[in-house]
Amino acid sequence: MRTPPATMDTPVQPPSRRRPCTTALLALLVALAPAVAQPAAADHYRGRPLVDVIDELQRNGLHVIYNTQQVPSSLRVTREPETGDPAQMLEEMLEPLGLRLSRVGDGVYALVAAPQSPAPVPAAATAAKSAGELLQEVVVTTSRYGLANETLDSQTFLTRAELESLPKLADESLRAVHRLPGAASNGFSGLAHIRGGEEKETQILLNGLALSEPFHLKDFLSPVSVLDSRVIDSIDVSLGGFTVEQGDRMSAVVDARTVTAPENLYFELGLSLFHTGGLAAGKSTDGDFNWLVAIRRSNLDQASDLAAKDIGDLNYNDAFGRLELKVSDVTSLALNVLTSTDRVTALADSTSEQAQVVYRNNYLWGELDHEWSATDHTRLIGSFTDVDNDRDGTLDDPAGQTGIVHDSRTYDILGLRLENEHVRSRVVTRWGLEARQLHATYHYASEVTYAPDFPFPGDPGSQTIRRLDPAPEGHAVAAFVSSRLKAGQSLTAELGVRWDRQTYGEVDDDAQISPRINLLFDLRESTRLRASWGRFFQPQAIDELQVEDGVEHFFKAQRSDHTIVSVEQDLAPQIQLRVEAYHKHYARLMTRYENEFDPLKLMPELQPDRVSISPSSAHAEGIEVLVSRRGVGPWNWFASYAWSRATDRIDGVDVPRSWDQRSALQAGIHWFDRSWDATLAATYHSSWPTTALHVVPGTDPNGNPIQLVQVGERNVERIGDFRSLDLRVSRKFPLTKGEIDAFMEVTNALANENPCCVQYSVTSAPGGAIDFDASVRNWPELVPSLGVLWKF
Hints:
Layout: H1 22-36, H2 50-59, E1 63-65, H3 86-94, E2 99-105, E3 108-113, H4 131-136, E4 144-149, E5 156-159, H5 160-165, E6 183-184, E7 193-194, E8 202-206, E9 209-210, E10 215-216, E11 224-225, E12 232-238, E13 252-258, E14 265-272, E15 275-283, E16 289-298, H6 300-306, E17 312-326, E18 331-347, E19 353-371, E20 376-397, E21 401-423, E22 427-450, E23 462-468, E24 473-486, E25 491-502, E26 511-524, E27 527-538, E28 558-572, E29 575-587, E30 592-595, E31 610-613, E32 617-629, E33 635-650, E34 653-656, E35 663-672, E36 676-685, E37 689-690, E38 693-699, E39 705-711, E40 717-718, E41 722-734, E42 739-747, E43 755-764, E44 770-778, E45 783-791
Parallel strand pairs: 1-3, 4-5, 8-13
Antiparallel strand pairs: 2-3, 4-12, 6-7, 8-9, 10-11, 12-13, 14-15, 14-45, 15-16, 16-17, 17-18, 18-19, 19-20, 20-21, 21-22, 22-23, 22-24, 24-25, 25-26, 26-27, 27-28, 28-29, 29-32, 30-31, 32-33, 33-34, 33-35, 35-36, 36-41, 37-40, 38-39, 41-42, 42-45, 43-44
């Protein structure tokens, strides 16, 4: 289905270093774009792709729902329409193509085949597609979901209209991933644990480039990504079993692509509780040149002032620009630039902690696509990534703790990726190479002092001082090859293998080979069975040294083996059932560090509950059920249930991971008409594990009875379940020039508690007794938002 394209008080002094001129490049894009774009001229539709024409007419008020299997990108308009309203003009253009409009609501139409008319044939193709061409479009992999899809296929989870209407904190498109079965989220962080994995096991791609740390406020739970929702056109999410084209991560891949200009010249201006932003886009009359620029800044300072809550100064901004040029019928070029800056002074509730951070992310990449022939295609991506992170903090707790942190990290990556595809009658072969040159510098210093009797009575007190300055550099190279083949009338298979090697740090002999297989069985027209097995490695990235915990060496690449079985059943023409079962076995796991009791700290490495976890292996398994309705009418809905278990093997015992989520329910219902759009979404997940403290009887060195504090077994306790009801309502107001979209949204509208952890207060009392208090802390609860967007 397609809908309109979406378009510390003392300043931290980071070390001086040479930077790429991404800001200048962005300014150049802004200056050149209006000069290149042509003024909107009289419409000439004959010969243009029908999908482009429909998108343009929708900008003029027409709302059309259609399936791109009916309207392939190669289908072109053959008749120039007479002047009339958009619906009449489109009717004239559809008639010669064997299509017509069917009214399904107030101002809403569905595109259907005309009665007794042959199915439309693309003008550029006078014969049926070859078996190889069809094979390219077959989804063989399990656990794949489409967000903002323009086709109503079996992998579509949300259409574009549904994604835009979905309640999502800070209008964050990537937060839609949290609605998928298998995702475990605290409701605030922009990252989710996918099928028992760590948050950093998810790779995020934008127009083919793997982004490093693509989040704002990344030392503060990363609530917002650097991807402005207005520039995201579509997102494909693989929760496991992904093919060999993707490596480096063990759990999931989020592949996002950006919009192109819907008109010759197009603008958006938006204001919400979280952001102020603007977007400009355009294209040449012949469509061979497209450009887009989007800029966004945070409004969190103003929002905190309105809430009369002093949490510090939270300022961030980001910008994205893209140029696309069609050099010839077979060659196209694209240049992308993405840049973001954060300047944050954060205060803890008690003001005993203060942190100042400055983050700068810059990405510059170009794409070259070339069709050698009807059967051979090549894509080349060259990229440069430059990231600076500076963090300074102080801690002064009257209870007996003082500390300071200075943490400065920089890294850059120069990359080149080559992808090739060859299509034969019943086989599609893909192969590629990737090479990256990496360099990083770390300057880390911290000092923390615990007074006697802190954190627990009887503790002797201690001091820890760390100074680490590693500067790793080296290469990461990869090669992959896969073949997708039609092995029979009902069986399609994809076999692939991937090879990776890293040469930075001390791990210079660690090469990984990853075989993978995906199978699709078309049991009957309405039933599909998918199965996959694969090995996935995740090397420690050059920017992931755990210097804050005293580690300055790289671990060998971690490994995860996935086994997944999926069944899809069409229950009715517009209702589909999907059931998936998975098992993940982890090996070669690196040591990780967590705060056992309270993760909501500005400088977690200074806290006394910081522990190291070194599993010999880990397991994650689960069953997921999803039922959804995707149709042409104004009502659509989905409901899912997931049972899962994620454990670490530690000293021969299976210990629940801190994000082990046994049961989770998701449901949503979406309704729209010509002016109004509303979505109601509900979430439930069972309680997460926690480690408890207990007061137990004991004796002092003289044999006198006293009370002692004892740490319980790791993660054997559970804190409360979470329930959330989220609502978003929007309305369109047509104007003489464009339209206004206004929205109101409430996250956790019922203000249910969202437990994250337990905070303990332990002090000495007379006679060897202990005053002990435990209180549950919560993630942010009810969060309202509202905003307006002017499109013109």
